[in-house]
Specification:
alpha/beta; 7 helices; globular; single chain; 256 residues; 10 strands; 10-stranded mixed beta sheet
Length: 256
């Protein structure tokens, strides 16, 4: 079997807080998020034998307890993902998937097969603001992949509800970037939706967007959110949620 695979990070302590994990990156994604840091993968098509990512997993086994599949968008590559997730589990590792949540049926299938221990879902913006969600996904720009933003939001909601109704761990993440998304009102809106439709105890991480090496180079004219500003947004989120975190370059993961 061949997979559209890019590379790996042998040991990460950031992607799955509390665990050392190896992170495997697949190529391609249906979104064109302006703040994307992995935009060189978005249209890359480089099929390699699945033995290569398997070997990357094997090399990391002495140092990690989990494998996290990322990208790009890993759920674009279900056959390879299933094979690699099964391989990781055979080696005694937990499996995490970082995804934009668009492929709700694939998430439902992975849950049915007990292939994933934790999903990390990017909730890009408040669901109530269709224009903003479209903008943050890059659906309204020259990078547009002609996806319907209403359909995108509907699928992400379904994905979140599928996971929440299962026994699979769920972490929701929102990346904040000045000039794009991250006002107190937007964080309150997102937090309220999570509390009202899922559970106030679901972990919610507010991530500091990096304004360097973004798909939209115009974002580098804006300052990054500081750690203190992230903490303030975290306090806003705690108006509705109990398990709020921030992730910054200065201090990594911190519970608010």
């Amino acid at each position: 079997m061949e997979v559209n695979y890019s590379s790996s990070v042998s040991v990460s302590t950031v992607d799955w807080y509390g665990r050392a994990s190896t992170v495997l990156f697949f190529n391609q994604c249906p979104f064109r998020c302006p703040y994307c840091q992995n935009h060189e993968l978005l249209e890359k098509n480089e099929l390699i034998d699945i033995s290569v990512p398997k070997q990357d997993i094997i090399k990391s086994i002495p140092f990690v307890s989990a494998v996290v599949f990322s990208g790009g968008e890993p759920l674009l590559h279900m056959n390879g993902l299933l094979e690699l997730a099964s391989f990781a589990k055979e080696k005694g590792l937990l499996v995490g998937v970082e995804t934009n949540g668009f492929f709700d049926e694939s998430i439902k299938y992975l849950i049915s097969q007990n292939m994933v221990d934790r999903f990390f879902i990017d909730l890009k913006a408040p669901f109530s603001d269709i224009y903003l969600y479209s903008k943050v996904c890059g659906l309204d720009s020259k990078y547009s992949t002609n996806l319907n933003p209403i359909q995108v939001i509907d699928r992400v909601k379904k994905s979140l509800k599928y996971i929440h109704s299962s026994n699979i761990e769920l972490e929701i993440r929102t990346t904040v970037m000045k000039g794009l998304v991250g006002t107190p009102a937007q964080i309150l809106d997102i937090s309220n939706w999570i509390a009202s439709n899922l559970d106030p105890k679901v972990p919610f991480v507010i991530q500091q967007g990096n304004n360097q090496n973004t798909l939209d180079t115009g974002l580098n004219r804006f300052e990054q959110f500081s750690r203190d500003e992230l903490l303030d947004l975290g306090d806003d989120a705690k108006s509705y949620l109990y398990n709020v975190w921030i992730r910054s370059r200065e201090q990594g993961n911190e519970k608010v």
